[in-house]
């Protein structure tokens, strides 16, 4: 016992207290910088910034897989792009597989939009254009017949077409609902939108988890300071100049690791010595679900974007054909008693041509109300409610994947960045306190 006391007395007598006390402060500041700059690496810049290097693409192809994941490297670029925007398409895929697919089928989303309301809106928007459409088609397909018809008869045809419009539109919206699973692919829609709008992916992370991200930066100082205490004791005990940079690597790596753990782990609530332990992000699942649902409903799965996908997506031809098929019977009903006479006058093939032309011309105008931004905003509330409810019901482990899975494979870059900054902080401290490179701090 006396030997221990003597050793402690000698140790205290020879300790450089300024150096010892400065190390935890140093590691605390470095920890804060590590987490702050780590968040910058996650989100910025939105687009790749750097230079293209000839031959780098070929070299990157033989590098270890993890090295190939560095943004820009596989494209022959030397520079940086935020990890999250660089993985925008990947996050879109995971968002569908892990989250959106569990929130509801395309049919459920479509049902939430109230197809009857959509049908009423289509009729409202389409009806004023219908007379011009009939005139345009008839003058194009059979101008002489249309010109020779008495004005009251022409008006009667237009009136009959307009009278058929609500029923035809109802048939179209019902048909879309029946076949929506074949016409709409949420995965392609979401992936394409995220890839084209990487800033939206950044917004998802920041709006949903900004509070936790801010805490991660603040705790960078706390973790760094606490880890710096044993580092300081080891450093002033052994007096080896290279020890501090090496321990800085461990501190930097561990600081980032603890920051990620603080936010995401453990997913399920646990009690340790009576204390509630759960990832900070998971504690606000209901609140985060509301924010996430608003972003998805306002910017990703909207009536406007559904309309664009239905008409211009990879299955757009099928949608157009389906709508045109539903429109053709309206021509027969509109012709009414004149149908037989018209068939005789112009022939069955010409009559069918008029029907086909009218149907195809009407396709685009029928779907246009889907692209009405104001109407889409009103309908978005229904999608938001559905997504929010389903997101709140997700098990914690599935919920946390919504945020983390897209970057999980790239977290090693953050840890490596922390290790490099920790080593740099160690060398800086040695330069100041051991080598006397800064006046006032002699070696």
Reconstruct the topology from this structure.
Layout: H1 2-14, H2 17-43, E1 49-52, H3 56-60, H4 65-68, E2 77-80, H5 83-86, H6 88-103, H7 106-112, H8 115-126, H9 130-141, H10 143-148, H11 151-183, H12 186-196, H13 198-238, H14 243-264, E3 270-272, E4 275-277, H15 280-283, H16 285-300, H17 303-312, H18 316-335, H19 338-346, H20 348-367, H21 373-393, H22 396-408, H23 411-433
Antiparallel strand pairs: 1-2, 3-4
Helix pairs in contact: 2-13, 2-14, 2-23, 6-12, 6-21, 6-22, 7-11, 8-11, 9-20, 11-18, 12-13, 13-14, 13-16, 14-23, 16-21, 17-18, 18-20, 19-20
Transmembrane segments: 20-43, 213-234, 240-264, 412-438
Keywords: Membrane, Transmembrane, Transmembrane helix
Protein name: DUF445 family protein
If you had to describe this structure to a student in words, what would you say it looks like?
This protein has 443 residues and is mainly alpha-helical. It has a domain at 92-195 and 288-396. The chain has 23 helices and four strands. It has helices at residues 2-14, 17-43, 56-60, 65-68, 83-86, 88-103, 106-112, 115-126, 130-141, 143-148, 151-183, 186-196, 198-238, 243-264, 280-283, 285-300, 303-312, 316-335, 338-346, 348-367, 373-393, 396-408, 411-433, and strands spanning 49-52, 77-80, 270-272, 275-277. The strands form two sheets. Strands 1-2 form a two-stranded antiparallel sheet. A two-stranded antiparallel sheet has the order 3-4. Helix 12 packs across helix 13 (198-238) and helix 16 runs antiparallel to helix 21. The protein is elongated. 35% of the residues are buried.
Properties at a glance:
443 residues, 4 strands, 23 helices, elongated, mainly alpha, two-stranded antiparallel sheet
